[in-house]
Amino acid sequence: MIPLVRPGDATGPQGERTVPGMIERALEDHPSVARAAVCVTADEPRRLIAFVAPSGEALSLRRLREHLAAARLVPDRAGTPEPEFVTMAAKTHDADDAWTTEALAQALDDLTRRRAPYVPPGDPTQRHLADVWEDLLMVDGIGLHDDFFSLGGHSLLAVRVRMRLQRDLGVEVSPELLFENSVLSDQADAVDRVRLDLGAS
Questions:
Q1: How far is the CA of 21 from the CAs of 11, 44, 58, 112, in angstroms?
Q2: Which residues span the domain enclosing 183?
């Protein structure tokens, strides 16, 4: 299990405790967040993990990053890395046992097991799909080898991917294309083939 340190448990300099705590408070002030916890991994290299449970409003990880940037917390003044977001189930926001350090570490482990080794999206279609997946799955840092369904995707969310592709790129894809190409790199290649076919017709 990935060892985590909560801000109040930190034993390092005051700055190491203060910045995660400030980020946690700023996130809990956001109307889309019902509850938040910010931890630092105990192993090197240090990672800052922000766990957030959505409120009734739509949660956008991109808007949360903008919120922290506006508060001048990212990048921070103490050398703490930019936070990685882990979205908790909305129903757990009032369950205290889901917010212990051990439970948060387990949630991070569970997500890590479902992730492929990170390779950044490269071309415009890959980057666009990564943004769409992040918005719909509420999973941070989508990589080329991540699988839509392993990260919590399902048929209703796949419909919304199709709608975003139609709206943003003007390309209509079949449900089968998304289901048969659920890895980001494969899905981007399949979308590009459809766009190429449309251009040639």
A1: 14, 20, 24, 24
A2: 124-200
